[in-house]
């Protein structure tokens, strides 16, 4: 137990980096996902088709590979553009872009399904009452999309938290990498990887509770109806 | 495009070997994982609190932590224990291949167990009661009625899990295995052309994903024949 207590401050520093990456990923992913979903349901082929291709491809390849392409590929591109002495892509930025893209790809499907589940008649009714398109979106569609999408988005968040561990492989100083350092210097790998696992488990459990509350809150208009 | 063709001619053997190892890992892990998932699902549904609690705890641990941590726990972690290092199993447990397989099996069993559990719960209650009323024991009802029905209900969700597992096997490259991602990482550092190499690997992974979803679509069509014929 003593080594764990000694290394706890280091591990907590890593945990902060992990959380920062996960939250930034979710924000970027939500924005991308909403944009891609709007492109998919726009009814314009030139906009919808590339969105479908991109998300299909992203969902069919390993997250780890996406991260490697962006990290090493980004550095390759920068080197070609700026020549020798070019800046490198930081592990945090590469992780954010890779995980954000993946989150966005999946979220676009969640949003699209939620969009399509709002009956068309409701929007028509809104329009008939003189709502603008934006008002229909803001006051009629979005609140319902939100309710339907929360469970799916919750799963994506849980996945994103766990995927941040991958970024430790390209050098991000997250909880995973800090545990690795502690494991190497104490020669107690099992102990420290278990501590890392438990930290992730705590995040998962807290997230589960928060998501359940958000679901309840977003569905409060529906609760009585059931 | 020219670069991709050059890469393909120079490295096709490596990519083929890597793809083959990926396919082996996916097939073995999904078969063994499913074999473990069924008892796990039944345990979770058991009235015995200790049994269902243990199964739920297992499921929570493997679904609530990153697979990377799990693979490191097995590959680097097990050696911490004198008892394991001294055991006859150590020469086997030291192999990266074995460690990767153990991790994938334990991990996918947890996710598949949830899917199987959902499938069992989705079997109409009347069918289970009918089986019991016909005089089947619980084991017979499971074997002859519940599990076959649950199987066809589970297939679409299980197809997704196999794709996720396939993507997860890329982590084997972090413990020195040269599966598709491992080979790509080697080729990328050899050629200094990471984008092209990783895109090529990505294309192969994408084809594997398509193959898995096609395969399961066919299985689904076959195992739900009785439903379409009924119309």
Question: Biggest protein-protein interface?
Answer: A-B, 40 and 43 residues
Could you name the ranges of chain B where pLDDT drops below 50 across 5 or more consecutive residues? none
Structural class of chain A: mainly alpha
Number of strands of chain A: 0
Radius of gyration of chain B: 21 Å
Quaternary? heterodimer
Query: CATH class of chain A, anyone?
Result: Mainly Alpha
What's the helix-strand series of chain A? HHHHHHHHH
Q: Percent of residues of chain B in beta strands? A: under 5%
Task: Explain the overall architecture.
The complex is a heterodimer of chains A (226) and B (231). Chain A has one domain: MetI-like (MetI-like fold). Chain A has 9 helices and no strands. Chain A has helices at residues 2-40, 45-60, 63-82, 91-117, 120-128, 133-163, 175-186, 189-218, 220-223. In chain A, helix 1 packs antiparallel against helix 7 and helix 2 (45-60) crosses helix 4 (91-117). The longest helix of chain A is centred in the first third of the chain and has 39 residues, at 2-40. Chain B is mainly α. Chain B has one domain (2-229): MetI-like fold. Chain B contains 11 helices and no strands. Chain B has helices spanning 2-44, 49-64, 67-77, 82-86, 90-93, 96-122, 125-133, 138-168, 180-191, 194-223, 225-229. The longest helix of chain B is centred in the first third of the chain and has 43 residues, at 2-44. Chain B is flat and about 70 Å long. The A-B interface holds A 57, 59-66, 68-69, 72-73, 75-77, 158, 162-166, 168-169, 176, 180, 183, 187-191, 193-194, 196-197, 200-201, 204-205 and B 60-61, 63-70, 72-73, 76-81, 163, 166-171, 173-174, 181, 184-185, 188, 192-195, 198-199, 201-202, 205-206, 209-210. Chain A: One of its GO terms (molecular function) is transmembrane transporter activity.
Q: What's the SSE blueprint?
A:
The complex is a heterodimer of chains A (about 230) and B (about 230).
Chain A: H1 2-40, H2 45-60, H3 63-82, H4 91-117, H5 120-128, H6 133-163, H7 175-186, H8 189-218, H9 220-223
Chain B: H1 2-44, H2 49-64, H3 67-77, H4 82-86, H5 90-93, H6 96-122, H7 125-133, H8 138-168, H9 180-191, H10 194-223, H11 225-229
Helix pairs in contact in B: 1-2, 1-6, 1-9, 1-10, 2-6, 3-6, 6-8, 7-8, 8-10, 9-10
